[in-house]
Design a protein that fits this description.
This protein is an all-alpha fold. 67% of the residues lie in helices and 0% in strands. The chain starts with a helix and ends with a helix.
């Protein structure tokens, strides 16, 4: 495998191990993203938690009337999230 990836370089076991570790992390991140894509309610919650951490929890809620039901549900949870994170409504 090393010869195919780096034909001009001498074999280095450590280099191959680093590449395999990076590849494993990328595969894990890909699997998480694929699973998260089907969890719309979780996407909304994570978005609101991220906004609350940045004290931007009100950004989505004015648009909630036009938004999907998962966003409206997430906006309903905003009070809990923002109060837990110390943000002021």
């Amino acid at each position: 495998m090393h010869q195919r990836l780096w034909p001009e370089l001498a074999y280095e076991h450590q280099r191959l191990r680093y590449v395999m570790t990076d590849l494993t992390r990328l595969v894990e991140e890909f699997l998480v993203q694929k699973h998260l894509a089907s969890k719309h309610w979780l996407q909304g919650r994570l978005l609101l938690e991220g906004l609350a951490e940045r004290k931007q929890g009100k950004i989505l809620c004015p648009k909630a009337s036009k938004a999907s039901s998962s966003t409206r549900t997430a906006c309903a949870m905003r009070t809990t999230i923002t109060s837990a994170s110390g943000c002021i409504n």
